[in-house]
Structure formats: structure tokens, C-alpha cells
Amino acid sequence: MENAKLIQVDEEKCNNCHSCISVCPVKTCIDGSGDKVAVIAERCIGCGQCIPACKQQARSIVDDTAAFFKDLSENVPMVAIVAPAVAAVFDDSWLKLNGYLKSIGVKAVFDVSFGAELTAKSYLDYAKREKPKTIIAQPCAALVSYCQMYNPELLQYLAPAHSPMLHTAAMIREFFPEYKNCRIAAISPCTSKKREFEETGLIRYNVTMIHLKEEMEKRKVSLSSFSPLEYDGPRAERAVLFSTPGGLKETVIRDAPDITPKIRRIEGPEIVYDYLNEIPRMVEENVAPFIVDCLNCSAGCNGGPGTGNYNQPIDRLEARVEKRKKAEIRENKRNPLRNPLKTSLKKFWKPGLYNRNYVDLSGQIAFRTPNKTELEEIYRMMKKHSQEDMLNCSACGYFTCQGMAEAIYNGLNRPENCHQYLKVDAEENLREGAANLANSLISEIEKSKHMFEELHTKMSQFLEINGRQDDALRKSNMEMEELIRNIQAVSSLTEEKRRDIDNLGHAAIQVKKDMQDLLKSLSDVEHATNNIAGIADIIEDVASSTNLLAMNAAIEAAHAGNSGRGFAVVANEIRGLSGTTGKNAGSITQNIKEIISQIGTSLSLSGKTDTVMTDMISSVDTAEKSFSEILKSHTDIADRTKLLTSDLNALDATAETLRSSSQAIIAELDSMKTLIETLGTAADAAKSQQL
Ligand code: SF4
Ligand code: SF4
Ligand code: SF4
């Protein structure tokens, strides 16, 4: 039969730390050969130790809680049996849980503690009937699986009776026919119970208390809203302690006090498996106890993997169960509806009903043991070459190096997960890395030496160029100063010329003004001359008329004879005078015309001169503006040149700083070169030491 899966790993969360291997009592059920661990279901005994050990919370229980709720919702008829650990998990509300279970459709709820009472009776019956030397109690399904799968030699000592849960289920099937159509769901503290349920077929659902609680929280169910409800079926007495380490012992000695010293109570995965392995030897040696009251979990079922009580102190858990025990004993005495325990045990007892047979499942483990040669080969792969390399440090999760080697041999792990392997590998890598480092250091040092030499040469060249640059700068500076002086001289000359032009402009304006006055005077003269010319014409006309009159007077005088002789003389004189006057007037008129012509020429020339003067004034004005512009440009040039000079001075200072820095760098380069040479010698020495 294929073993049910009890534990699952969330690969997303698993960081391959192998803490789970470390706590796993059988180890072969965890495949640690990959990047994530995997559980091999057919080898897992369901002890649940790996769940709290996994700090990544990558591990969780596989149970039937989801199927239980789903089937209930589909009206599948069911009864529930509740393990004694219920008091440790639900504290004072353990009876209220019955109310909740019935509210969701569970037809009846039975107390597994009574199954534990039946179990104790089965043991004592077997002891009385068969008189075995040693009985290994088997309430713990993980331990039963261990015996079946890993140490079948122990099967002969396992009590051939059902666990308390299976006792309860068998009792229901036998004595409660009204529930014969019901499936049985176990409210359980344990992962491994699923195995015995599947093996016997008596119980259908393993509903772990932790998942039940989670589901109730999801459904926002609070037990405080339910009333406590009595269990259906018979009630137990002190077997309610079965979930507590030593609970079986306390129950058994109630009925057989004489066997008290012969009961060994033992729990906890760190010791219980080694102890069980020793039982056959102890039986041979006649030192084995009569009953081994053993549990896988240190806190018993009260802290089982299905309770979620990993972090609860054992005393708190036991106090809760003890409180319940006292309440049960009180109620048994007080409640007339409860049958006395003996009556119930008798009523629900049937010989053979609770017997259990075990199957040797060791064949499915298929774990091979390497021979000496194979082991040595694996050790070689693990980089273990001497006894000193066998650290047995448990870092791999196995207790010994041989355990790890066997796991590797069976494909369950790989050498890279061994602490020693990693250490040696790291040392080898370190050595190789150091050698590589030394080589590359030496080569880098060589390169650095060349670089420094090149740098030194370049810095020297730079210094030389810097010197030349400095000279050029200084020369430029001097030339700039000379340029400034020249510009200033040109500027003052230009200013002088500008002033001259300005004066010329003023003079030209004055000349133009004088010229206009002259023009006006000439015009006046021309006008006056024209008037004179008119008068001369009149004189000439008068002279001509006078001449004509004088000629007529002479003719008349001639007619008058002697008496007219004197008059004729006067008339001739007047005629001569008028002729002269006419000639003179003509001559004057001619002269005046020439004068007028000359004045016209003068006027025309003066007009041209005025135009020329106007043009000249405009040119002088333009020239003056140009000179002003030139002067302004000179000022600008002078200002900029001064700035340039100041920049050149700053450049000169920078060049000076650069030179002194360069000299300092060259000095540093020299000392660094010496240092690198020392380093090179050290690296050579280190390399030869490595080799
Ligand atoms: S439940 Fe137990 S046996 Fe199974 S893997 Fe975890 S530690 Fe190992
Ligand atoms: S304990 Fe196991 S399952 Fe959890 S992280 Fe480590 S290797 Fe993975
Ligand atoms: S030395 Fe390696 S193989 Fe040995 S116990 Fe430590 S981790 Fe495991």
C-alpha cells in the first residue's frame, strides 16, 4: 500500500538549510540532493519534528480538514472522535467544541479518552494472557510507523492492540449501530495518525486541531458562543491523561499497581528512537522494562505536531489536562447519568475486537548501505582524506559523516552540503584565488611600474611645456600692456582730432551763416544796381531827346540869322553835351550791366558755396560721430584688454601653481614607484610561498 503524504514543503519558502534533516529521526525521508528539499512520503513516519524546526515555515501538515468540511457541507453523515489533547489545545472550551461540531452537522462526538481506557485494559489483558517480556505501548503512530518501516525487529514487542483512537472507532462500529452509515473523523493532535487510519480503514478523516482552529478562525467561529456539550458514548477517568507523557503509566497502575516499577516512561525524538533500538538487546540482557510508555513528542500529544502548541511550555499544557482530569473524576462521582468506568469498560469490551496486527514495511525504505570501497569513494568526493576530516559536526543534518556519506550514496544529499567539503573547497578556492591574485598582482605591479614611468616622463614633459607656456604668458602679458598703452595713445589722439573736427564743424556753421548774410547783401546790391541801370537808361533817353532838341534849336537859330547865332552856339553846346551825356549814360548802363552780371555770377557762386558748406557741415558732423564711435571702441578695447591682462595674470598664477603641483606629483610618483617595487618584491615572495 502506498503511504499517504503527511508533510509538504513549500519550495518557494525553502532555503535548503537542512534544519529539517537535522531534526528528522529517520533522515532517509528527506531528499536534500537538490536546491530545495523534498519529502519522500513512503519513508516519512509523520513525527512532525521538521515543522517547528523549519524557520522558513516552508513545511506544513497534510491532513483531511478540507475534505472533512467539504463532505460535511455535502451532508455526508459523520461522527467525530476527539483526542484527549483537546484540553491542551482548546483549554476550558474543550466541551464547547462538541457544540460547534454538532452545529456543523456532526451526528455524535465521542471521547477518545475512553478509547484510552480500553487501550490500557487491552495491554493488561495481553500481559495477563501472553505474559510477554516487554510491551512497547503504541498510542504514538509515529513510533509504530518507525517500528514498521525502520526497525521491524521491534514489531514483536509492540502491544498487539489498537491505539486509543482505533479502540474508539472499533467500539463505535461494534456497539453503536445507529452510526453504522457514518464516516468517522478524528479530531487529532497528530500528523502520523493518518497512516494508521489508512492502514486499518477504521477512520476516514484526520482533522488536526491546528487546522480545525485555523478553519474556525477563517469562518469567524468563536467557541464562546457555544454551550459545553457532553460527549456521546462512555466517559473516561484518568485516561484523559493519555496525551500527557506518563499518562498511560498512570492509567495502567490504577488497575495494576504492582507493575509500577516495571514501566519506563520515555518521550522526545532525541532519545526515544535510540532507546527503542536498544530494546532487543535490553530484553536479551534481561534489563528491559515490562511496559515502555513511549511517545515521539517531548510534550506528548499535548504538544503534538497537529496541535500548534510548539511554543507552549509543557507545564501550561499539562496543567490544562490535569484540570480536566480532576473535573472528569469529580463529574464521574457526581453525575448519576455516567456509568462507573468498570461498567463501561465491561459494556464496551469484546475479546479480539481491539487487536492490531503490524506489517513489516521496511522493504519500502530501500535504503542501501555502501561497502567500504564505496564509502571511501564517497569520502573522497566529500574531500575527506583523513580521519581528521571526519568532523562529525552534524552541520549537514546527519549526526555523523558516515550518515551523510550513506545519504549521498542513496542519492539523498550531495557532497557540496558537507561543512568539511565547503571548508576544504573554500580553502582550495582561497589558495587558488590567492595564487591567481598574486599572479595578477605581480602583473598589475609590472604594469603599474610602466605606467608610473610613463607618467613620470609625461609629467616632466608637462613641466617643460608648462615652463614654456609660462614664458609665453609672461610675454603676452607684456605685449598686452604695450597694446594697452598704444590704445590709450591712439585714444587721446583720436579725442584731440575729434575736438578739431568739432571746432571745424562750428567754424563751418559760422561760415555758412556769413555766406547767407553775403548772399542777402549781394541780392540787395543787385537790386540797387538794377535801379541804377534804369536811371542810366532814363539819362540816355533824356540825352537823346536833348540832342534832338538842340539840333532843332540850332536849325531855328540858323533861321534866325545873327540873332540866332548866340543861341545856335548854345544849342550846339547843348547838343554836344547831350551827346556826351548820352554816350556816358550808355557807357554807365554798359558798366552797370556788367556789374549786374558779375553780381549774378557772385550770387550763383555764393549759392553753390552755401550748398558746399551745408554738405561740409554734414560731413564734419558724420566725421565727428565716427570719431566718437572710434573713441568708444578704443575705450572698449582698452577695457577688454585690461580684463585680458588680468586673466593672463590669473593664468600665469595658475600655471605657477600647476608647476609646483606637478613637481610635487613627480616627487610622489617617485616614492610610489619605490613602493610598487617593494610590493612587487612582496608579491613575488608571497607567490613563491603559495607554490
Ligand atoms: S515528519 Fe518526521 S519523519 Fe517525516 S520528514 Fe518530518 S521529521 Fe522526518
Ligand atoms: S528546514 Fe527543511 S524545509 Fe525548512 S527551509 Fe530548511 S531545508 Fe527547507
Ligand atoms: S563533517 Fe560534513 S558530513 Fe560530517 S557531520 Fe559535518 S557536515 Fe556532516
TrEMBL record:
The keyword Iron applies. GO terms for molecular function: 4 iron, 4 sulfur cluster binding; metal ion binding; transmembrane signaling receptor activity. GO terms for biological process: chemotaxis; signal transduction. GO terms for cellular component: plasma membrane. Gene3D superfamilies: 3.30.70.20, Electron transport complex subunit B, putative Fe-S cluster, Fe-only Hydrogenase (Larger Subunit), Chain L, domain 3, Methyl-accepting chemotaxis protein. Residues 444-673 form the Methyl-accepting transducer domain. Residues 374-436 form the 4Fe-4S domain. InterPro entries: 4Fe-4S_dom (IPR007202), 4Fe4S_Fe-S-bd (IPR017896), 4Fe4S_Fe_S_CS (IPR017900), Fe_hydrogenase (IPR009016), Fe_hydrogenase_lsu_C (IPR004108), MCP_chemotaxis (IPR051310), MCPsignal_dom (IPR004089). Pfam families: Fe_hyd_lg_C, Fer4_10, FeS, MCPsignal. The keyword Iron applies. Residues 5-34, 35-64 form the 4Fe-4S ferredoxin-type domain. Keywords: 4Fe-4S, Chemotaxis, Iron, Iron-sulfur, Metal-binding, Transducer. Belongs to the methyl-accepting chemotaxis (MCP) protein family. This is 4Fe-4S binding protein. It comes from Breznakiella homolactica.
